[in-house]
Design goal:
This protein is α+β, with helices and mostly antiparallel strands and 500 residues long. It has three domains: 205 residues, Histidine kinase-like ATPase, C-terminal domain (Heat Shock Protein 90, 2-Layer Sandwich); 129 residues, Ribosomal Protein S5, domain 2, CATH 3.30.230; 114 residues, no CATH class. It is 31% helix and 17% strand. The longest helix has 20 residues. The protein is elongated, with a radius of gyration of 30 Å. About 2% of the residues have low confidence. Bound molecules: adenosine-5'-diphosphate and magnesium ion (MG). Adenosine-5'-diphosphate binds next to helix 2, helix 3 and helix 4.
Length: 500
């Protein structure tokens, strides 16, 4: 059998590797993965705007590399993707450093120092590939002439690594200016704050991340500790896996968040882009919101408004990479078929709660899902073979008390209620909801206090005079009843009217 050796053409190979689909932020995240795997405690990123001379540099205080490790690390396919890795290792394919860097820059310089040893430095320069006679894959020693100062910080460090990107032809394109650079830094900050939030979180974070000298603060997708959350499930162990866990979260309705909090909670991609599963591999976020192709009746769930408050934290270990089809970009993961039904169950719990919170404007108590000893709702939903209808509860405290006092107009009031019920503008509400992507306003949102007070006083009267509750009991009950539970100051001001 005759065999031919068919190595790739270096130039063509390297150029095509540039198009894997990295954005600047995802490419930087891949470099930070390497820093974390090398036990860094602080990673400092700098983007310098200097027109065509602009550069990006990542300095970490990790273990660093000696000359041999650096040379291996600079090779494409430095390590076998099938090899077992330390549990904290965020790498996989032995490509990230090179592919991430080439996606943004034509020149990649890596300088490193281990245990106070010598500073070692190697460099790829795509513009010089094919120019060196006899060397198809030329790896240059040392920084490019004129760039020595950019790797100088390493001299003062015992150990650590500097990755330097120059000739940023994919970032500094025609028309790109200083303002664009500032916006880019903001986008990068949002992405890193999200991707590494679990490293940056807590009183003693594992990692400090600096971006142009500013500390990157973690972004918490789950608003942990917010009193308005409707669900924070236990951490479930997924059966038949080695250490996959999941936790369901339902965020508070937006009425319960201040406008600034809402924008932050939505996340960099916006509400609907950020609902569903958040998949972490060794605490590093791979996927920020996706229903992972799960669905009902063969139809995958789409990212819609009604379920935007559901977020499920899913943790997988790196030993399960092949099982979950982790890609080079670390931007996708797909659950093994045998786990789908478990994940479906978990997701359904979070989705159901999220939908209820969305529809009821947040009137669901945390965890339990229902309110005890509140006044019964004014509306009832009736389902029958003829379809669903909406009825005003005749035994609602206020309604019952009015009917009781109505005397000769009682039948007119009943006709009026019936008229309202039969003409609920269902179509209109439905249209407005889909169009505005919000349920229409109810529950006195934005109403002045005196209007709320008018209805509240009538309710209070009905409870005290008609139902025979003591004023304290009546106030207590109203305080638990939506929508008045959001006007506790008004509720506590309720007094029995002087009747003479
Ligand atoms: N910041 C760094 N500190 C120490 N070693 C590094 C660093 N970046 C890369 N390396 C070394 O280079 C190798 C190749 O990195 P990379 O191409 O990202 O592939 P992977 O992370 O999948 O191993 C790493 O396995 C590691 O040995
Ligand atoms: Mg890597």
């Amino acid at each position: 059998m005759s065999v031919r050796n068919a190595p790739p053409h270096a130039g063509a190979m390297l150029e095509s590797l540039r198009g894997l689909g990295y954005a600047p932020a995802t490419a930087l995240a891949d470099l930070i993965d390497n820093s974390i795997s090398a036990n860094s405690r602080e990673v400092s990123i700098h983007l310098e705007w200097a027109g065509p001379e602009s550069w990006v540099r990542v300095v970490d205080d990790g273990d660093g590399m000696d000359d041999r490790t650096l040379e291996t690390g600079m090779r494409l396919g430095a390590r076998d993707p099938k090899a077992e890795r330390a549990a904290s290792d965020l790498g996989r394919f032995g490509l990230g450093l090179k592919t991430a860097s080439f996606s943004q820059a034509r020149r990649l310089t890596v300088a490193s120092r281990k245990n106070g040893g010598p500073v070692v430095c190697l460099r790829w320069d795509l513009s010089l590939v094919g120019q060196e006679p006899g060397t198809e894959w030329p790896l240059f020693e040392g920084p490019a002439p004129g760039s020595e100062h950019l790797i100088a910080p390493l001299v003062k460090m015992e150990h650590g690594t500097i990755v330097l990107w120059e000739n940023l032809d994919r970032i500094v394109t025609d028309g790109f200016n200083a303002t664009d650079m500032i916006e880019l830094v903001d986008r990068i900050e949002a992405h890193l704050a999200m991707t590494f939030h679990r490293f940056l979180d807590g009183p003693q974070p594992d990692l400090r991340l600096l971006l142009n000298s500013r500390e990157v603060k973690p972004w918490d997708p789950y608003l942990v500790g917010h009193p308005g959350k409707a669900l924070e499930s236990p951490v479930y162990r997924i059966l038949h896996t080695t250490g996959v866990t999941a936790q369901g979260h339902v965020l508070p309705h937006r009425d319960m968040l201040k406008p600034a909090e809402q924008e932050v909670a939505a996340g960099p991609g916006g509400w609907t882009q950020q609902e569903g599963f958040y998949v972490y591999r060794n605490k590093r976020l791979l996927l920020a919101g996706s229903w992972l192709g799960l669905g009902d009746g063969g139809k995958p769930w789409s990212c819609d408004e009604a379920h935007r408050l559901a977020r499920i934290r899913l943790d997988i270990p790196n030993s399960a990479d092949a099982d979950w089809k982790i890609n080079v970009l670390k931007s996708t993961a797909s659950p093994p078929v045998r786990l789908r039904s478990q994940l479906h169950r978990l997701a359904s719990e979070a989705r159901d709660t999220a939908r209820r919170v969305f529809a009821h404007r947040g009137y669901i108590t945390p965890a339990s899902g229902t309110r005890s000893s509140a006044v019964a709702g004014a509306w009832q939903v009736r389902r029958s073979v003829q379809g669903t209808s909406y009825r005003i509860a005749r035994d609602h405290d206020l309604v019952a008390s009015i009917l009781n006092r109505a005397g000769p107009v009682k039948s007119d009031i009943l006709s009026l209620l019936r008229l309202i019920e039969e003409t609920v503008p269902v179509q209109r509400i439905w249209l407005d909801t889909t169009e505005d992507k919000e349920t229409p306003r109810t529950g006195f949102v934005g109403a002045p206090d005196n209007e709320v007070m008018e209805t509240l006083s009538s309710m209070f009267e009905a409870l005290v005079t008609f139902r025979g509750l003591s004023p304290t009991e009546a106030r207590e009950r109203l305080g638990r009843t939506p929508p008045f539970d959001r006007h506790l100051d008004l509720v506590s001001a309720l007094e029995v009217k002087d009747r003479q």
